[in-house]
Sequence to fold (697 residues):
Amino acid sequence: MSLAAPRPSAAESWSAPASCSDEACIDVRLDDDAVVTRPANAGEVDAITAGRERDASSGSVLAPRMPTREDETASAVMLAEAADPEAWLDVHIAVDVELQSKRALLEGVTGASDDDRLARIETIEMEAEMLLAPVEAMVTAAGAKVLGRVWLGQPALAVQMPAREVRRVAELDGVLGLTIATPELEQTAVPTDYYPLDRVSDGHGLMTREFVHHGWEGNLQNRTNAAQPMRIAIMESESSNPAKYKPNWIDPSHPGWLDLPGGATRVKKIMKCWGGVCVDTNPIPGGNHGNGVASVAAGCIDQGQDPAFPGINTPDQIARTGPAPEAEIYYYNIQDSIPNLQAALQRAVTDGVDVVNMSFGNNECDPAKGGGANATIKDAADAGIVLVSGTGNDQDGDACGVSWPALRPEILAVGGTNTSVSATAFRDSSLTPAINEFGDPFSSFTFGGMPVVTRSGTAFSATVVSLVAPGWMRHPYTWNGPDGRYENGWGGSSLASPTVAGSAALLLEHFRDAGSASGFNSRRFMAHMMLLGDAWDGADVVAPGGTQYMPNGPNKKSGFGRLRMRGPYAPLTNLVGPYHWASNVVTAMPGQVYSFAVNGAGPEPAGPTEFKVVAHWTPTDFGSTSDIVLELWNTCPAGGGPAAKLQHNHTFDYRKRIRRTNISGQCLEVRVIPYSVPAQGEAVYLAYLYHSGEVSP
Fold:
């Protein structure tokens, strides 16, 4: 179908201001390619001050300029020169080569057999060794000690070197740029902020198994796919500052990691990823954060693993059991630097991890953050890993507060709510000062309106929050906490994130058990997870179960809403029929319209109470995002006549949703309309479902 109609107007109507100071102006390109000047909003001002390209004639801003690799290298050199020149630094040196075999070999790595995966990775490593060798020889001659090679993302060398040599190495032939490992990543919860048990009550504390509708995940003895267990990576940070240093590890002796009473541990690896490389290690006693985060995702004592809580599936056991109680656990401590995160992600691909949880971040909502690590994140998603991260806890007001790496489009960014049933956020953004329900200055309900620019030059505040989930945990696991092996309770997006990560593992296991995960694509799976958001609009609804829903979405507060887990395949589904669940992917090319019928070309059955469709794509450059519209049509309107448009999402977001509550008898058709995409097209991932029963699953 050819693209004939002009792009619909955006929700906001732009008009030129009477006057506007140069520092707070931005040029906006309209549908007819005309450009008008208007005042910049707060998020755009932040982007403008981060880096500007000015039009020579008007002096106003056409688009925020994203820092380049050269900018990052220059900054790193200046930092090194300002420090002790004799100090030894951990450095990632990006090399100007491409691994030709990597793309094809990475595809389908996750979920492959161990032998197949390791054979593919060995081929990638051999090519990386050969291509990195010339630069490796030069940096070694410059006094650097090579620790390891990076092939996930832009090829790089992980080295230790004296600060005085940084400038010389940065100027070597073949060096694309370098990143010095500096403390940048912090935990997204405060594990020492314990709440007495009487303040973490039934109404205000997460039992992950009561939040997740988990009736179809089965017990260990009933697995249908035991030969390929789910693998969850828990990546954790800790401060490298001796004054703040607190060990952050997982306790492998905790009974919550046993598959059955007296059985084998599900903790398969504990790795120290410091200095840009990962090595097996013995954990240091301590580290409530890592234990707690892992327990929210995959802790399990519901088969009687802990003698202190005997029986099977008792309330006390369920309160200490996560949504993925059968998953294998891989633990990676990245200290607090971005290069260490790159090393951990590379190791996770090697280890065959399915889902990665990252309950840490940098509190700057900076679209240019991450440098070379963004390519590593992209490659990890290409390899099939589902990436999940907490949005952060430092929100105050409506400026974007989502942390890196959660703001990356390849990642499910998760904010926290109070409980499984209440719509109350940790802190509603209208409250002043920022407090949670206990009167403490804390929030993990993080507003996400990140400044981006479309390929056509339109500045836009993009939604980056994917989902929200409960962030209070009653009994997270610990090493010798106030309640023995379990804490009294603590919270933050650190716990909302593994709630979603464990749920993702649960759904992925269901897909595999149903035989539907062949050719698995993590971005397509992200569409499934966002489809399960209940469309809650983030309003401060105090009554348990209270709801205010969005017809479209997502929302900058709550993303696609609160995660409500369901399974799509009979006989394990818990959707009420009639129901239908499907997904699709299209490569949106310039000048084309893509349409597909919902469950065939005929009318939908009588009875469905809700229909949702989600579409998203993953831009690699926030300064040049694609402009794609999502529409829903009825091709058999009552009384006949031409197809009628029912609903649309015409925003510039790279994550979209359409939601309706009455589709009976309508012939639904989803249309994907690209208005500005790269010449090679943009891959758009979609999922949709309709069902009967409760209005929002």
Q: What stands out?
A: The longest strand covers residues 576-588. The chain has a mean pLDDT of 79. The longest helix spans residues 114-141. Residues 133 and 640 are 69 Å apart (CA to CA).
